[in-house]
Design brief:
single chain; alpha+beta; twelve-stranded mixed beta sheet; three-stranded antiparallel beta sheet; about 15% strand; binds adenosine-5'-diphosphate; binds magnesium ion
Length: about 625
């Protein structure tokens, strides 16, 4: 619905018997707005002759004069609003005017005649009539009746209302949700399934209504009353619900406090009423102003409750009730002025549709069941929500094959089964997460391995060094062993030479052990000599070597001595052998010159020489036996 200004109507109350009418005229224009002209004659009572008249003109949607009947007022003012409410929009009709100007008569009606029924009963009748006619939707209707008195809210439908004092009643309070929607706490919503039930509730509320008598009007209310009809509708099978409400508002008298002519308790009431209406006026002024961002709705309870009705999501209508009595002309003019400002306010009613989640659940459940049935029909298999163990194993296998397959065109085909497809995704995700974790683990392992490798490399390096050291030592030992072998060989050679000497072959024996080492050293290269020196110095057995060296020296000395002895014995043997040979030559010469029998007989000289040789040989062998122990 487009933005619309609040429709403002005027209704002139019939004059009472003792009342003197003020001067006014109504220019009723069917096509456009109607005009009410009020003439204020200057008071002659002050003695000044003044023929001047003051004229005030006010435009209204329509003006209902004194004779206008309730049904006409309803048809023109309330029916269009009721229709909007039935269509799902919010609506408000409020009556504004001084006490006794006919607000209650217009909104609720008079009790004397059935035809005096006001807007509320007629609207209820109309709405229930319409609801009955419309079978395309399911409707639910509730009513609430709120009274605001001295800025406090009371539930007029509260069953305790009649029995309790006003102070003891639960107060209705305003709650605002995050979307700035107003909610009224402690205000009951009574369901009314038909016109009669709704009318009974209206009657109950009216009975409970706060009434305060004033000199100006015996039955005038000093409180604001808001009767609300709540309608919700929905098409069968649909989850969309339309909710709308119609506020029918009977405001307290708009007259000034001074005019009431009362004091004490009632004056307090008047002040409050005025204060409340003063805030209403402020809200209306603010709404009529362009570019006004803040509207002071929160200042009073009434403006808070009527927030939507004023400048919001609502089709709002105002009825200015006028008491055209000469004494009340000023008040009538101020009511009209207020109405003119209200007429400037633009409202925009929107359809109040909402989706009921409970209904959506029901709908979806139904849809799921239908789809399941269809699936069974197509596949011929009943499908449970869980996959069987066998199916799970099959899927694991399929996934495994798919992952191993290097062919880029390979596909994981599990058929048109969402449960299986979902399972595959979940399984793949698990696998991916697992591989990520193991990657991380292997990375950390790798790092520790690297550390280990570094350590090992260090150790290896150390071992290599050690090995090199050992190798050096071994090669030194090898050299040493070779040297010892050579030395042994030399000793054996010496022995051989001795043997040979004994057989007439000359031989050389080292003069001392030092000479030997010297000769060993001479035979070695410079590097070997150096290594040999280092080995001799550093080797753990260097002491033993030194001892051995000493021993060796001693043995060599002994060997040398024996060698000399052997040479001496060998010389003696050779000498004795020479003597024997000499004897033989002498004997041969004698045999030639003077052969005799004696020459063939044993020669005692020769025999003696042979005995000597045998003795020397024994000595020789004795020395020779001693020699190996010296060479070792
Ligand atoms: P308010 O509620 O504005 O104080 P009421 O609606 O109580 O005024 O009206 C005061 C008196 O005038 C009531 O007795 C009511 O019946 C009578 N009255 C008001 N308007 C009309 C009308 N249009 N026709 C007949 N009687 C009316
Ligand atoms: Mg009233």
């Amino acid at each position: 619905m487009a933005k619309e200004t609040i429709r403002v109507y005027a209704r002139v109350k019939p004059l009472g018997r003792r009342q003197e009418a003020g001067i006014y005229s109504i220019d009723d224009d069917e096509k456009s707005l109607s005009t009410l002209e009020v003439i204020v004659p200057h008071d002659l009572a002050d003695g000044v002759v003044n023929n001047k008249r003051e004229s005030y003109k006010f435009k209204f949607q329509k003006i209902f004069d004194q004779e206008a009947k309730q049904d006409v007022v309803f048809d023109s003012i309330a029916k269009p609003v009721a229709e909007c409410v039935l269509a799902g929009y919010n609506g408000t009709i409020f009556a504004y005017g001084q006490t006794g100007s006919g607000k209650t008569f217009t909104i609720t009606g008079g009790a004397e005649r059935y035809s005096d029924r006001g807007i509320i009963p007629r609207t209820l009748s109309y709405i229930f009539d319409q609801l009955q006619k419309d079978s395309s939707k399911v409707y639910t209707t509730h009513v609430s009746y709120l009274e605001i008195y001295n800025e406090c809210g009371y539930d007029l439908l509260d069953p305790r209302h009649e029995a309790s004092r006003l102070e003891d009643l639960l107060k209705v309070t305003i709650m605002e949700d995050p979307d700035q929607n107003i909610h009224l706490k402690n205000l009951s919503l009574q369901q009314a399934t038909n016109e009669e039930e709704a009318l009974n509730l209206l009657f109950l509320g009216d009975t409970n209504r706060m009434i305060a008598e004033t000199p100006m009007n015996q039955a005038s209310s000093r409180s604001h009353c808001i009767f609300t009809i709540h309608i919700s509708s929905k098409e069968p099978g649909s989850a969309t619900i339309r909710r709308s409400k119609l506020h029918l508002v009977d405001l307290a008298g708009s007259e000034r406090v001074a005019k009431t002519g009362v004091g004490g308790h009632l004056l307090t009431e008047a002040k409050y009423i005025n204060l409340s209406l003063h805030y209403l006026e402020q809200v209306i002024i603010a709404l009529a102003e362009k570019n006004r961002s803040h509207i002071p709705y929160r200042n009073s309870m009434m403006t808070s409750v009527l927030r939507d009705s004023l400048g919001g999501n609502c089709m709002t209508t105002m009825i200015a009730t006028l008491s055209i009595d000469k004494r009340n002309i000023d008040e009538s003019i101020s009511t009209c002025r207020f109405a003119q400002r209200v007429a400037l306010i633009k409202n925009e009613a929107v359809l109040n549709e909402e989706i009921d989640p409970r209904l959506i659940i029901v709908q979806l459940k139904k849809e799921i069941q239908e789809l399941k049935d269809e699936l069974v029909l197509v596949t011929g298999k009943e499908r449970t929500s869980e996959l069987s163990q066998e199916e799970l194993l099959q899927l694991d296998e399929l996934i495994g094959t798919f992952l191993k397959d290097n062919d880029p065109d390979s596909a994981l085909d599990v058929g048109a089964d969402m449960r299986k497809i979902k399972y595959c995704f979940v399984h793949m995700k698990e696998l991916m997460n697992h591989s990520k974790i193991s990657d991380r683990k292997s990375l950390s392992q790798h790092t520790s391995e690297e550390k280990d490798t570094n350590k090992e490399a260090e150790e290896l390096e150390k071992m290599k060094e050690l090995l090199q050291q050992r190798d050096n030592e071994i090669s030194i030992l090898y050299i040493l062993v070779n040297m010892l072998k050579k030395e042994k060989k030399k000793a054996q050679d010496a022995l051989f030479q001795l043997n040979a000497a004994s057989a007439g072959i000359p031989c050389a024996v080292p003069s001392s052990a030092d000479d030997y080492y010297l000769s060993v050293g001479e035979n070695m290269s410079l590097g070997c000599q150096e290594a040999f020196e280092v080995f001799k110095r550093d080797h753990a057995d260097s002491v033993t070597t030194e001892d051995n060296k000493q021993l060796l020296k001693q043995r060599f000395a002994e060997a040398k001595c024996l060698g000399e002895k052997l040479n001496e014995v060998r010389n003696k043997i050779n000498n004795l052998k020479g003597k024997i040979t000499q004897r033989h030559i002498q004997k041969a010469a004698l045999a030639v010159s003077s052969p005799s029998e004696e020459l063939n007989m044993l020669d005692p000289v020769e025999e003696k020489l042979r005995m000597q040789i045998e003795d020397e040989k024994k000595r020789y062998y004795f020395c020779l036996k001693l020699l190996p122990s010296c060479g070792r």
